[in-house]
User: Fold this.
Amino acid sequence: MKKKQAKKEVFITNSFGDKYLYSICKNLFSGKQATVFYDRKFKQILNQKNQFTVIIGTDSGLILRYFKEKKLPGGAYVLCLELPQVYQRLKKDGLIAALNPQLDCKPFSAGSTGQTTFDLGAHLHVDNIVTLVADSAAAAYVEEYREMAQAAQDQLMIEQRKLAAAVVQEPYLLTQARNITENLIAADYLKDSFVGKTAFVLGGGPSLDDSLPWLLEHRDAVVVFAATRISARLVEVGLTPDVLIAIDPRPVNFQVSKEMFLFQPHPVLIHADHADLTITAQWPGSCLYCGGVLPWDSPLNRNDFPRYGPTVSNQAVSIALGMGFKDIYLAGVDLCFS
Assistant:
């Protein structure tokens, strides 16, 4: 819809007194009363507390008129998104200025769900956002509504994923802060200290046992990196690694790794800055960290080895590369084995 058309088009009125733009709604409301229709369509909104509803389109203002006359439950909010040219027309006709505190309407642009007076993030956090599409937008008599509906829903999904990622990061950041007294020697002090040498990275996959006999026979020829959680198996076969790797911030990591304290002599422990404190604070051997001392930008944070992926095996390979190993072999790193 062109801006000029939206600006000049005259609202038509059906037999029930409902006013709308024909180019947007066509005959959707020519034979039915908007209030009766919306009572059925929006029944849940009118009865659900603490729900944030995003409605894409306004049926050229009919939805705004409807909710202006309704009392929403406590903690419920409705945000309508409109095409910019339609929004300006509704604003000109006074439909935007007189909205109640639980109702808002914003023009939509790609990459944003619109600045609103409501705390969208708070509702995303508790996952109580509902997205609906106005009938005229779903019908897409104006083609831009089809694009807007898809873009708005995609953007909301992106915001939800961003928030979910932030929530997932919380235990990592808190544990990193608790580890400040343990993050003393950065692992990059070992940079290029084993240039040209051979390393084995051991994970907990089923192929580990296939490699153990060879490793035991050639133990002095290679440097062995191992995830802490396979310590029990390595103790059982009598293989002491040179380097142990820990990254998990959860206390369960200590429970599955406690046999690491049985190794004699103690291997070097290289841990992520957010590794479980019950491991990092109790380790009796040499200890280095990867990452930053502080969970925010600071001169105390050193340039670190690059990290390739989120798993302990990824971290071990990253460290081995930073230390200069020429050949790095994997055992028990079975990826998507099933």
